[in-house]
Amino acid sequence: MTQKITLSIPDRLHEKLNEWRSSFNLSKMFQDALSDAIERKEAFSKKLCEEFDMTQIINRLHQEKEQWLKSLYNAGRKRGFGWAQGAHYQDLLYVLDCDDTCDSGQEIVRHSRFKAYFEDLYDAHDLTRYAQQGGVDHEKKFLQGWFDGVNAFWNEVREYI
User: Fold this and answer.
1) Does one domain contain both 108 and 63?
2) Whether residue 26 is found in the same domain as residue 91
3) Considering the entire predicted model, what is its pTM?
4) Could you give the count of Cα atoms lying within 13 Å of 21 in the half-sphere of its Cβ?
5) Is the pLDDT assigned to residue 134 strictly greater than 90?
6) CB within 8 A of 9, min separation 6: which ones?
7) Rounded distance, CA 145 to CA 139, Å?
8) Among 22, 33, 79, 135, which residue's CB has the most CB atoms within a 10 Å radius?
9) Are residues 16 and 90 part of one domain?
10) 102 Ramachandran zone, left/alpha/beta (phi>0; psi -120 to 50)
11) Are 40 and 87 in the same domain?
12) Residue 93 and residue 29 share a domain
């Protein structure tokens, strides 16, 4: 049994294809190219599993990830504490309220009042680059640390205000 699929190609390639369409068996060309690509992937995967202890590699990468996330959390906490020290009272209350009600801190990050601050912060800690690549754990850890830093500052000063 065969299955039909749809492919997309750029306009320029499509124009050239139309010129030569009768010279090619496109279905056969695609089947051969796809079979070769899958064989290469499978061979690479098999070689990788045979030559390396994947469990050990995964454990090492997991530990590195945890250390990296911990360092991002600590950096966020330090930055949040520092921000809170210079924050206006109204901004501080807004952030403290948002910490309880916001979805993972994104409301604060996008808020016009704080947007420029967070853009600089994201650039300084490479969060923008990782966010564009689809990473979210690092951003969540950093923001969790940031909010925890703001809360730590507040807990130290609120009874004196």
Assistant:
1) yes
2) no
3) 0.64
4) 6
5) no
6) 17
7) 10
8) 79
9) no
10) beta
11) no
12) no
